[in-house]
Amino acid sequence: xxxxxxxxxxxxxxxxxxxxxxxxxxxxxxxxxxxxxxxxxxxxxxxxxxxxxxxxxxxxxxxxxxxxxxxxxxxxxxxxxxxxxxxxxxxxxxxxxxxxxxxxxxxxxxxxxxxxxxxxxxxxxxxxxxxxxxxxxxxxxxxxxxxxxxxxxxxxxxxxxxxxxxxxxxxxxxxxxxxxxxxxxxxxxxxxxxxxxxxxxxxxxxxxx
Length: 209
Prior knowledge:
By secondary structure, this protein is α+β, with helices and mostly antiparallel strands. This is GntR family transcriptional regulator.
């Protein structure tokens, strides 16, 4: 009707969906859900490749790196022995649209077996998670095959508010991820704290008939 191909129409609808204007809903079709662009980055996850793509882009900086003995709280969270040393990385990330205040602070805990890989991580626009996964695959033939994720809301306060340069009480999004290999062993735990004014989370579930 408008003199364009089906491929062009699909591409346009996909772009509108990615920006949050429309949503596909069976059996209704495509529905308009917004009439303006949101000043947020949407975290959309349907697979490991989506997680890797999310972790790329935007300036990132490792602000701390050390071997730390697990206290009772961390040991309970990651299922290790109290006192076992894990490699800890603290990472700040900025969105591509906001280069002043960081949008996320993440704590990464790396299995002692791979602490040597963590010590050599250097990054700019690529997440240490992505680099770590690539390095352990090359050096050890290991890789995550299962990722458990927990998403929770919280109010940003104290040192975290100072790190993200926001006021106390600003809404935040906490995303915890446990990366396990094919043997079920935890190789990486990521605990990310996001500025809730800059991020929203979206998950797509594909149901088997």
